[in-house]
TrEMBL record:
It comes from Alkalicella caledoniensis. This is tRNA-2-methylthio-N(6)-dimethylallyladenosine synthase. Residues 147-377 form the Radical SAM core domain. PROSITE patterns: MTTASE_N, MTTASE_RADICAL, RADICAL_SAM, TRAM. Keywords: 4Fe-4S, Cytoplasm, Iron, Iron-sulfur, Metal-binding, S-adenosyl-L-methionine, Transferase, tRNA processing. Catalyzes the methylthiolation of N6-(dimethylallyl)adenosine (i(6)A), leading to the formation of 2-methylthio-N6-(dimethylallyl)adenosine (ms(2)i(6)A) at position 37 in tRNAs that read codons beginning with uridine. It comes from the Bacteria. Monomer. Residues 381-446 form the TRAM domain. Belongs to the methylthiotransferase family. MiaB subfamily. Signal peptide: none annotated. The lineage of its organism: Bacteria, Bacillati, Bacillota, Clostridia, Eubacteriales.
Amino acid sequence: MEVENKHFIIHTYGCQMNVHDSEILAGMLGQMGYSQTSKEEEADIILINTCTIRDKAEQKVFGKLGALKKLKEEKPNLIVGICGCMSQQEEVAEKIKKSYRHVDLLFGTHNVHQLPEMIKKILFNNERVFEIWEKEGEVVEGLPQQRNEGVSAWVTITYGCNNFCTYCIVPYVRGRERSRKPEDIVEETKRLASEGFKEITLLGQNVNSYGKDFDESYDFADLIKDLDDIEGIERIRYMTSHPRDFTDKLVDVIANSKKVCNHFHLPVQAGSNTVLKKMNRGYTREEYLELVGKIKKSMGHVAITTDLIVGFPGETEEDFQATLDLVSQVRFDSAFTFAYSPRTGTPAAKMEEQVRKEDKSRRLTALIDLQNQISKEINEGSYLGNTFTVLVEGPSKNNPDFLSGRTTTNKLVNFSAPSNESLVGQIVKVKIIEAQTWSLLGEVVL
Ligand code: SAH
Ligand code: SF4
Ligand code: F3S
C-alpha cells in the first residue's frame, strides 16, 4: 500500500526509548508514503507515544488526548493512535478504549513493527484496532528508521529491563532485557559514521548488563572496545549504567578507550541504605561511593551525574538527610531529581508508610537547592577560565548568534565563533568565560 499526499505527526513523551520507537514509526510511515508535518490540521495520522514513569507524565498524555477530540470530530477520517508505555498497562488501556472513543488505534511497546498492517486494517475495515502483546518478542532488526539529521545519534543496544527496582514501572511495560547482536550495533554505527554523525550514545535501561542474555561471553566492555575503532565516530556515550553492574573491567576499558567520554551518569536514587534496600537497587551507599572513587582515580577529570528520588515509602527525615549528605560527598555535576510517584502494579505502590505530599515537595526543594549550588560551584571552580574541546551541534537555542555543543563531560556550552556554519560537526576548543548552573558560556580559541 502506498498513499499520496498524506501526512502524519508523532507526539513523543518520555525517554529515549520512546524517541527511538518514534523514529521507527516515522520510518515505516515514510515507507508507506506518508510525510511528516508539524501542523495538526494537516495530519491524516496523529500518534501519541506515551510514557508512564510518573503520574505527571500520564496526566500530560490524557490532556493531549482530550484536546484531540475536537479535531477528530471535525475530521472523521483522521487516525488517532496511542502507543508506548501507557498502553502496556491494562487498566490504562481499558480506560482509553472505553472513555476515549476518538482513539482509533492502540498498540503496545512490543507491537511497533506491526504499524503498517494496523493502519491498513483501519483504512480497509473501518474499525478500531487494538494490538497489545503482553510479552516481548524477538528483537526485530532491519526496520526503516527516520532519524533527524545531526551530529549525535542514539543507538539502542538493549531493550527492556530485568532489575525490578520496586518503584519502577519500566520492567512491566518494556519487558525482559534483550541485547541486540554486536554485529548489528557495529553495522549501524558504521552507517551512522558514513552519514556524518560524530557521536553515538549507546542506549539501554541498564547498558552495563548488555550481553548477559548471550550464550557466548561478550559484554558491554567488549562492545565498547569494538565500537572504539570505528572511523568517523569521535565520541561514545552511553545511558544508563547501573551502579551495581559497573565492573572493574568496564572502568578499565573506558579509561583506556580513545572515544568514550569522561561523563558517568550513575543513578544512585537515595543515600540511605535502608531505602536503597527497599528499592531493590542491589548496592549500598558505601559500594556506590567506592565505585565513584575508583572512577575518579582511574580517569582524572570526570563529570558524575545522577538520578535521585525523594519520598520513597518509609523514607524518614534521617534517610533524607543521608541523601543530602551523599550529594555533598560525591558533588555531582548535576542530577535529575524526582518526587516518588506510586505506579500501579509495582511493589512500592503497595508499601505502607507512603510519604505525605507536602514532605515530598519540601524534600525535593531542599535537594534541588543543594544540587544547584554544587553544580554552580563546580562550573565556576573547574570550568571558568579554562579551555575545553566542544563538539559543535548547531546554533544555540537561546541566541542564534551563538553556537552550542558539549564538552566530553557533557556540559552544555554556548559560545561565539568567527564564522558559525562551517563549525557544525567539528570539535573545537572553547574558552569558558561565564559559568552558570545549567550551562557555560564561552568563545572559540583558534
Ligand atoms: N534505567 C534507568 C532510568 C529509568 S527511569 C536507571 O535505572 O537509572 C529514570 C528515572 O526516573 C529513574 O532513575 C528514577 O530516578 C526515576 N523514577 C523511576 N520511577 C519513578 C517513580 N515511580 N517515581 C519517581 N521517580 C521515578
Ligand atoms: Fe527502572 Fe530500575 Fe530498570 Fe532503571 S534499572 S529501568 S529504575 S527497574
Ligand atoms: Fe517512560 Fe517508558 Fe521511557 S515509561 S521513561 S517512556 S521506558
